[in-house]
Design a protein that fits this description.
The complex is a heterodimer of chains A (344) and B (823). Chain A has 344 residues and is of the alpha+beta class. Chain A has two domains: 144 residues, 60s Ribosomal Protein L30, Chain: A (2-Layer Sandwich); 169 residues, Phosphoribosyl-aminoimidazole Synthetase, Chain A, domain 2 (Alpha-Beta Complex), CATH 3.90.650. Chain A has nine helices and 13 strands. In chain A, the strands form three sheets. In chain A, strands 8-10-7-11-9-12-13 form a seven-stranded mixed β-sheet. In chain A, strands 1-6-4-5 form a four-stranded mixed β-sheet. Chain A has a two-stranded antiparallel sheet with strand order 2-3. In chain A, strand 2 and strand 3 form a beta hairpin. In chain A, helix 6 packs antiparallel against helix 9. The longest helix of chain A has 18 residues. Chain B is α/β, with parallel strands linked by helices and 823 residues long. Chain B has 24 helices and 33 strands. In chain B, helix 16 crosses helix 18 and helix 19 crosses helix 20. Chain B is globular and about 95 Å long. At the A-B interface, helix 8 and strand 13 of A face helix 12, helix 13, strand 25, helix 15 and helix 18 of B. The complex binds fe (iii) ion, magnesium ion (MG) and zinc ion (2 copies). Magnesium ion (MG) binds next to helix 3 of chain A.
Chain lengths: 344, 823
């Protein structure tokens, strides 16, 4: 794309609604996103309703610091996060909106980079950005760039995925290594000198989900294990479905560098955030098909079956257990605020 | 003539109470009957007034040894209510179930001498029967399904008695009269034997086990078991409350293999020896320890080892133990056989030249001990930990670990309260307005639970469960739930209030909060170290050493506990009453990078402490720094500087860990408390080898802040660590410095304690917390405090470690709820 940046930093005037605002929209956003709906220049992007009559919609705000990190930037996150959230419903993700809150003085070339990444990621995911908004706040009023995206997709007839669908006997899959994003962000932000660079895994997974759904049509549910990691996702599933879940620790794919970092930092990798991973629960007889589909899909080469759904014993509360390599189990809880160590 | 109803309460079931009553009735010419009910033993008696009085007096004065008669209530009935013509003599009537399950059950009792004699008497019909017992001994709590204690309510219900056993059981003058687990080869349980073939347990798992239905078959199993042990094998053996893993304690290869398979690299292992004499060949034993070892409870007793004290072999008849049983630790856990099977095994082992067997808990690392034969096969043999399984067909209904105790200054101090002790009630003060029943959910590690109900006679009984373990583990959390419902069911108690730790993510606390919300019950969250101190106070109040409203100075030296200010406490001086506390002093806090990560790797904890104290550059710290790689140093420093997952702590346990790492005595904890335990071992070595007396000189006390009136004293450990590093730089021996460290901590703590006591007008100090598992520190500090004229309280019925927390929580919660209740 062209770098016809008139201004070198974001100015308050870029949010004024006047000439400057038009300039930043034209030069920065339209140039990159350029969907027909957007180029029509209307206040609303108008799109066609799907034949199935059902849409899925999700929104998310992105305030990550730093905005640039190994493996991506806030723009990639903003597209992937919402695309993945919409896609977990089984919908074909079609349209995105994006709202920017910019801090006065933010370097224009960085904004360009972010926007360019968003365009590329949207292209990769096959979604159109059809409406947007820009606000500029005074210095100190925000940390550089905040982005909100909302996404809409059409839900094919017959698809009804829900975290409440898990049944005893079902199998739990994850689409790749865990913990990459959370550790990458933390290392970058805090300047932790790990010997190997850990990259964020941010990726759009709507195609992977579609592939899994066609290979394993009775898939119960998907969820992207973002904040709170796998621990939160599985506990949410267990509670919604009233079941117990068991994860084989050794089966969970984790990069050695991430594992080592977690040990050093005292984090449980199963509680660390991911941005390009999908958890799926499928009936046992479709597990192999789902796994093959995941592995064949882009971003799914390290997919693995990591556990199973178990019946809830009478009186027990829904819970997730991790079976360690030597057969003992530990209870995998959701993260409770800032962690206080429990061991004596 | 008088006609009365007598109600006897206390530990009156499973202890031969009814036969005793029968014999006394006979001796005093009493007509009537006796029965067991849920709330104790009931007697109706018809006799001349004199005879009746003598009979009633005898009930408490001559009760069987294992009984504990708490109360004998006599109510006169109409004399004409007795049909003297038709109701002659005295009889034992079938047990009645009543709703009030308030009686106390005897814990399991070690095989008595009478039974032992029969066990080894070839002429006896129970010669070599591995389940011999009588009313004075045998399993109790581990086989009870419900109360009252009767064969039909135990796991013996599937063994109909043969005519000979039935006759003994029915004969009031027989030692086995109404002995519920009474059995013999013909009618009772039998041992079973399954072996992994060529190390392949799975391939052999369908094989029918050998069953010791006859003496010959039973003996053959024991012989084969001992043969396997003698050749270095590892056997899973079913005991009273769960499985043990056994091997020859003198065979280094076998012990090392057991450690490898159990993934238990350094934690010391307990051994079982046949006799007191044999125990004496391993360890020094004083009278109190002798009584514990050979008594009816038979816990594991932690004894001072001979081999370590008398290096170069010691006395000529000392047994050699494999070095890896307990490495260089000064103490060894020793127990004597407490089941007939163990007696048979140890006798057979001795015949093969084996004098001591390692008997460690039969579990997967971190999980509860196995109690079921099939699961034990799966988890212990098929999983490759044991080579064979010696089981039996009598089900264990309650899981009980071996209790662990030690004797300090002549008095017992429990380390783990389980078989033989729990759930005997511990007393709490009776309080007006306290809830009818409080359930205290305990801590996260070394969990127990406690149920305290309203009492009579000024005391409220508190049923403290057996040691359950670390409830973070799935199986242990299940065991926690099972123990809780079992206590509630058995004693028919429905909690009217709950207590738990303040820690936000203890699983027991989460359960309590949820339950309180669901059932709309009051919940008291008790600070961890307040619970520690309250447990000591409650015991002292019950013993009449303190008044119910007393204030003490509590010194809680502990590993970890959530503090009231968001930091992790553990080096605390609390001015405490049962209902509340004020933090009078604490260690200067430092960051624990990675939280638990710095507990596992004590060097990072030490690095953080020295960084906090500004001592990283000290030449004495060079070894520590060199032992950490560049990445670890840099990341750790960044974590501290930026506060990344680095909670601040004032924990004394962590201070000991740090000292161990700085001295190069222990870098990493492969089991809980290892660095601190090794530090103590080093200090004892210094005492044993170098100076043989407590040193009077030492440098580096804590410095304390200028005034604590404006807030808690902060004990600054900088001077102490400066002295330690200076010692390293000067080339002093690590053992000697470890000793100095202990002395400095004890003296500084005593000095601050005395200042607080003087100011507060307090004359009593209560000690609790896992750090006081350190016998040396406990003795040094106690001595210092006493020399300052202070009374020192330590617990004797609950452990100083987190095994006391549930009891302490119950004490605090009852007091607080009584205070807020409308009078
Ligand atoms: Fe504690
Ligand atoms: Mg999201
Ligand atoms: Zn006996
Ligand atoms: Zn019999």
């Amino acid at each position: 794309m062209s770098h016809s940046v008139t201004d070198s930093t974001v100015l308050l005037g870029h949010g004024s609604g006047g000439q400057m605002m038009k300039r930043i929209i034209d030069e920065v956003f339209l140039d990159a996103f350029g969907s027909p709906e957007l180029l029509e220049g209307n206040d609303a992007g108008v799109a066609t309703l799907p034949a199935s009559g059902r849409i899925a919609m999700s929104t998310d705000s992105f305030v990550v610091s730093p905005q640039f990190f190994p493996g991506g930037n806030i723009g990639r996150l903003a597209v992937c996060g919402t695309v993945n959230d919409v896609a977990t419903s089984g919908a074909n993700v079609r349209y995105l909106s994006c709202g920017f809150i910019l801090e006065e003085g933010y370097p224009m070339d960085k904004l360009h980079q972010i926007v360019q990444t968003m365009a590329e990621t949207a292209h990769e995911a096959g979604v159109s950005i059809i409406t947007g908004d820009t606000k500029v706040v005074e210095r100190g009023g925000a940390d550089g760039v905040y982005i909100n995206t909302a996404g809409v997709g059409e839900v094919p007839a017959g698809v009804a995925l829900s975290g409440a669908n898990c049944r005893p006997g079902d199998v739990i899959l994850v689409s790749g290594t865990l913990g990459d994003h959370g550790i990458a962000i933390m290392s970058q932000r805090e300047g932790l000198a790990f010997s190997s660079t850990i990259e964020s895994d941010a990726a759009p997974l709507n195609h992977l989900i579609a592939d899994v759904l066609s290979a394993a049509p009775d898939t119960r549910c998907f969820r992207d294990p973002t904040r709170g990691g796998l621990a939160s996702t599985l506990n949410e599933f267990a509670q919604a479905s009233g079941v117990a879940m068991e994860v084989d620790e050794d089966a969970v794919p984790v990069r050695p560098g991430v594992q080592a970092a977690c040990e050093m930092l005292g984090y449980d990798v199963l509680q660390v955030a991911n941005e390009g991973k999908m958890v799926a629960v499928v009936p046992a007889e479709q597990a192999d098909a789902a796994l093959s589909a995941m592995r064949a899909a882009r971003y799914g080469e390290n997919a693995a079956i990591i556990g199973r759904v178990l019946p809830l014993e009478s009186g027990a509360r829904p819970a997730v257990r991790v079976r360690t390599g030597w057969g003992s189990t530990r209870i995998l809880d959701m993260l409770v605020g800032e962690q206080l160590p429990r061991i004596c | 003539m008088r006609h009365v109803h007598i109600h006897v309460t206390g530990i009156v079931q499973g202890v031969g109470m009814r036969p005793f009553v029968y014999r006394e009735a006979m001796a005093h010419g009493i007509c009537g009957w006796v029965l067991n009910a849920g709330d104790g033993v009931h007697i109706e008696a018809h006799a001349p007034a004199d005879a009746l009085d003598a009979f009633v007096a005898a009930l408490s004065e001559h009760a069987p040894a294992a009984a504990r008669v708490e109360y004998v209530e006599v109510v006169d009935l109409a004399a004409n209510g007795w049909d003297a013509a038709n109701e002659q003599g005295f009889r034992i009537v079938a047990s009645q179930d009543q709703t009030a399950h308030t009686t106390l059950v005897s814990p399991d009792i070690a095989t008595c001498n009478d039974c032992l004699r029969e066990l080894f008497d070839p002429a006896d019909r129970r010669y070599h029967y591995p389940f011999i017992n009588c009313t004075n001994c045998g399993p109790r709590f581990t086989i009870i399904r419900s109360l009252p204690y009767d064969r039909a309510a135990t796991s013996m219900d599937c063994f109909p008695m043969c005519p000979r056993c039935a006759a003994e059981y029915a004969d009031p003058l027989d030692r086995r009269f109404h002995a519920q687990p009474d059995a013999c080869f013909d009618c009772g349980p039998h041992i079973t034997w399954r072996e992994a073939v060529n190390g392949d347990a799975c391939g052999n798992s369908s094989a029918t086990p050998a069953v010791g239905t006859t003496r010959e078959a039973s003996d053959a199993i024991i012989e084969r078991c001992v043969e396997l042990l003698a050749s270095g094998g590892i056997v899973a053996i079913k005991g009273l409350g769960g499985f043990h893993l056994a091997c020859d304690a003198a065979n280094e290869q076998a012990v090392a293999e057991l450690r490898r398979r159990k993934r238990r690299s350094n934690k010391p292992l307990a051994v079982m020896v046949r006799s007191l004499a044999d125990a004496g060949r391993l360890c020094h034993i004083d009278d109190a320890e002798r009584e514990l070892l050979a008594g009816s409870i038979r816990p594991i007793v932690l004894l001072r080892r001979r081999a370590v004290c008398e290096s170069n072999g010691g006395s000529p008849d000392a047994f050699a133990l494999a070095p890896s049983v307990a490495h260089d630790l000064p103490e060894l856990g020793v127990m004597l056989p407490y089941t007939p099977l163990q007696h048979l095994l140890l006798a057979a082992a001795e015949a093969c030249g084996m004098h001591a067997l390692v008997m460690t808990s039969g579990n997967l690392s971190e999980e509860p001990i196995e109690t079921d034969d099939d699961l034990a096969w799966e988890h212990l043999v098929a999983a490759g930990i044991a080579d064979a399984l010696l089981g039996n067909d009598r089900a264990i209904l309650s899981r009980y670990d071996d209790s662990v105790v030690r004797v300090v200054d002549g008095a017992i101090m429990p380390v783990r309260r389980a078989r033989g002790y729990a759930p005997q009630p511990l007393p709490l003060p009776a309080l007006d307005g306290a809830p009818s029943c409080v359930l205290a959910c305990g801590p996260q590690q070394k969990a127990t639970i406690a149920l305290a109900r309203e009492g009579t006679n000024g005391e409220a009984p508190c049923f403290v469960s057996q040691h359950i373990g670390d409830v973070e583990n799935g199986g242990t959390f299940d065991a926690w739930n099972a123990a809780r419902t079992r206590l509630e069911d058995l004693f028919d108690l429905a909690p009217a209030a709950l207590a738990c730790d303040v820690h936000p993510s203890y699983l027991s606390g989460q359960w309590a909060r949820e339950q309180a919300r669901k059932c709309n019950l009051p919940l008291v969250e008790v600070q961890h170290h307040h619970a520690h101190i309250a447990s000591v106070m409650a015991e002292a109040i019950a013993a009449g050493q303190l008044t119910t409203d007393a204030r003490v100075l509590g010194i809680a030296f502990d590993g970890t506990g959530a503090g009231a200010d968001g930091t992790i406490w553990g080096g605390e001086f609390l001015v405490a009453s049962l209902g509340g506390f004020e933090r009078a002093a604490h260690l200067r806090t430092w960051a624990l990078p990675g939280g638990a990560a710095s507990v596992r790797d004590a060097r990072r904890n030490a690095f953080a402490l020295l960084s906090e104290l500004g001592l990283l550059e000290h030449p004495g710290a060079a070894r520590l720094l060199d032992s950490l790689d560049e990445q670890t140093r840099s990341v750790t420093a960044t974590m501290i500087e930026r506060g990344i997952n680095s909670p601040r702590t004032s924990s004394m346990g962590r201070l000991f860990d740090a000292a161990a790492a700085i001295l190069g005595i222990c870098d990493k904890a492969t089991y809980e408390g290892e660095p601190a335990i090794e530090l103590e071992a080093a200090a004892w070595r210094a005492l044993d080898n170098e100076i043989a007396r407590f040193p009077d000189d030492n440098a580096g006390y804590f410095a304390s802040g200028p005034s604590w009136l404006d807030g808690p004293y902060v004990l600054d450990q900088k001077a102490l660590f400066e002295a330690l590093l200076g010692g390293i730089e000067a080339g002093a021996s690590a053992d000697r410095l470890a000793l100095d460290f202990h002395v400095a901590v004890a003296r500084s703590s005593a000095r601050i304690a005395s200042e607080i006591c003087v100011h507060e007008g307090i004359d009593t100090v209560a000690l609790s917390g896992g750090v006081f598992m350190n016998r040396l520190l406990l003795q040094l500090l106690t001595r210092e405090l006493k020399s300052m004229g202070l009374t020192v309280l330590v617990p004797h019925s609950v452990p100083v470690n987190d095994g006391c927390i549930a009891y302490g929580q119950a004490a605090v919660a009852r007091t607080r709820l009584a205070q807020v209740a409308p009078q």
